[in-house]
Amino acid sequence: MKAVEIVCTCCGAESFLHREPVYEGLKKTGEELSCSACGFVFKSEAAIPFKEQTSAPEFFTDADRSKKVEVFTEGENKRICRYCADYVVNPFMQFCSRHKKEVQSTDSCPQFSPVSDKPAKPLI
Ligand SMILES: [Zn+2]
C-alpha cells in the first residue's frame, strides 16, 4: 500500500499514516489511524493531517516531450551531393558524373537529382 505522508498534529513531525485494522472479536470494525512517529491516534479520516502534496512527483515532464532535433531540414539534407543520383564514389575520390568534377559528399548543387532509393555507397 502506498505510504501516506502526514504532518502530525500531535508531535509535529512529518511522518506516515499508520493504518491498523480494528477487530471486535473476529469482525473488522474499522481502522485505527495513527501517527507512525508518536503513535497518536486520529479520530477519523477527516482528522488526518495529510501533508500537502505541493511537490508531487512529476512523472510526465519536459523530458517526455518529443526530443526530435533535426540539424538539417529534410530539404537541406537531401540536396547535398551525397544523396544525388550523379554522385559517384570510388576508393580515390568522390565524383559528380553530371559536372565531371570532384565533389565532396556534403557539397550541394543546383542540378541536384535525388537518388530514388539507393543510398550513396560508403567511401572505403
Ligand atoms: Zn505524531
Helix-strand blueprint:
Blueprint: E1 5-7, E2 14-24, E3 27-35, E4 41-42, H1 74-78, E5 87-89, E6 94-96, E7 101-102
Antiparallel strand pairs: 1-2, 2-3, 3-4, 5-6, 6-7
The chain binds zinc ion.
Tell me what you see in this structure:
With 124 residues, the chain is mainly β. The chain has two domains: 5-47, no CATH class; 72-116, Ubiquitin Ligase Nedd4, Chain: W, CATH 2.20.70. It is 4% helix and 27% strand. The chain has one helix and seven strands, in the order ββββαβββ. It has one helix at residues 74-78; strands at 5-7, 14-24, 27-35, 41-42, 87-89, 94-96, 101-102. The strands form two sheets. The protein has a four-stranded antiparallel beta sheet with strand order 1-2-3-4, with no helix packed on it. It has a three-stranded antiparallel beta sheet with strand order 5-6-7, with no helix packed on it. Strand 1 and strand 2 (14-24) form a beta hairpin. The longest helix is centred in the middle third of the chain and has 5 residues, at 74-78. The mean pLDDT is 81. The protein binds zinc ion. Zinc ion is lined by residues 8, 10-11, 13, 15, 35, 37-38, 40. Zinc ion (ZN) binds next to loops.
Concise overview:
It contains one helix and seven strands; from the N terminus they run ββββαβββ.
